[in-house]
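Training component of the fellowship. As part of building independent skills, the fellow (R.M.) carried out the full modelling exercise for a liganded target. The chosen ligand was 6-O-phosphono-beta-D-glucopyranose. The inputs are recorded below so that the supervisory panel can assess the work.
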Amino acid sequence: MTTKGFPEGFLWGGATAANQCEGGYDQGGRGLSSVDVVPFGPDRMKVAIGERRMLSCEEGYSYPSHEAIDMYHHYEEDIRLFAEMGFKCYRLSIAWTRILPNGDDDTPNEEGLRFYEDIFKLCKKYSIEPLVTIDHFDTPIALIEKYGGWRDRKMIDAYVKYCGVIFNRYKDLVRYWITFNEINMLLHMSFMGAGIVFNEGDDRQSVLYNAAHHELLASARAVKLAHEIMPDCMMGCMLAAGQFYPYSPDPKDIWDGFEKDRDNYFFIDVQARGSYPVWAWKRMEAAGVKLDLREGDEKTLAEGTVDYISFSYYASRCTTADPEIFAKHQRPGNAVFKAVVNPYLKNTEWGWQIDPLGLRVTINTLYDRYQKPLFIVENGLGATDKVEEDGSIHDPYRIDYMRQHIEAMRDAVNVDGIPVLGYTSWGCIDLVSASTGEMKKRYGMIYVDKDNEGNGTLNRIRKDSFYWYKKVIETNGADLSWEE
Ligand code: BG6
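Fellow's submitted model of the complex:
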């Protein structure tokens, strides 16, 4: 049954986010954004999850987004390299504050608009389809100061205003859009995902579910507006995916995993089906959540369902209902998703578990649930790379990781018959890590000479994976082999 390649027109490519690669944070009329004040070092996570208020750049801290890999000045070189790899698609995000420096300005910043227009035109020149994330961990600081981020409903109008500007400007250049990056991350990294800093006495569940409601309404309005302005466009939602496996066959563990999955699917359920699932109402009620549901909200959600489901997949997750087992086996590394170690899997250097078959599980689960085309818009391995004396970089571990995941995706497409639109590997070029702020945690197939302390020439170097991925794309995924 298995055929080797992928359907014609499969969108192979890579993905980045403005705040992790552009730099130029105060150039070209750009305003300050949430991630610009998320520092490097031990306070990073506290700020990212909304526990520590830092709404401006403070003395004694460094901020990785400020320069990042300076794609602001290197984009021509970088897109040329993507074209050399044969990219059919490049996923990037627009920095909201490059377009509207205060988030809701009446006059957009022409320099910012031109910056992305140049990028999209360059993509067109190389026949690369841009895939644009409208909001990738990016809330304008001015709006956080004014409204407290997405806890306030007024964010919806600001977001829709921003969408109107970019849709009208780029309607002939961009077809594929994503409304919010990893929308479910709002529950876990509330400042990064929604510009929320918790105040003392906050009813946190109500704050979070109202912020979610506002983002969902904003997403639905953006979808509707996009379809009016660009009838042929494809509007997607985006999930930080990865199925929860039960640690044991104990039904309590099964139920625990089921509920944890639902916490994440909740967002996509609304964006894909246009209404809240019945259990979500019950759960909010039980948690005492006071949802600010107003007249017309349900109609808005129903009218703004997405055309496809995109997601990131790095690992599956594993859970148990038993607090003692949980404490004993809790997974180190990225603390964003609380989970236990799955003893059947190996770990990356950063403690993320490697589970290629989990990608096939995730693809099938999402399709069973929504029956909409899928798009894998993030997948990759964060690892340390070494530049050899002759300037080469051998990264068989990355090739191996990607090969196994692409194989799993190929089975999902060819054996299971799931419609997958494309695959954009995360951090096709080394960039700043969202969770740690490090440069050392490299995902790219293109190396960028810069270290955690900000030293380096910013030179770009092709890794072995660059040549391997080029061949994968050339053969439309039929040849995944690699010989050193
Ligand atoms: C996803 C984000 O969560 O994972 C990216 O959309 C992020 O922004 C990526 O960079 C990898 O995570 P990290 O923390 O290793 O950069």
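The panel noted the following from the submitted structure. The domain at 11-474 is CATH 3.20.20.80 (TIM Barrel). The first strand starts at residue 11 and ends at 15.
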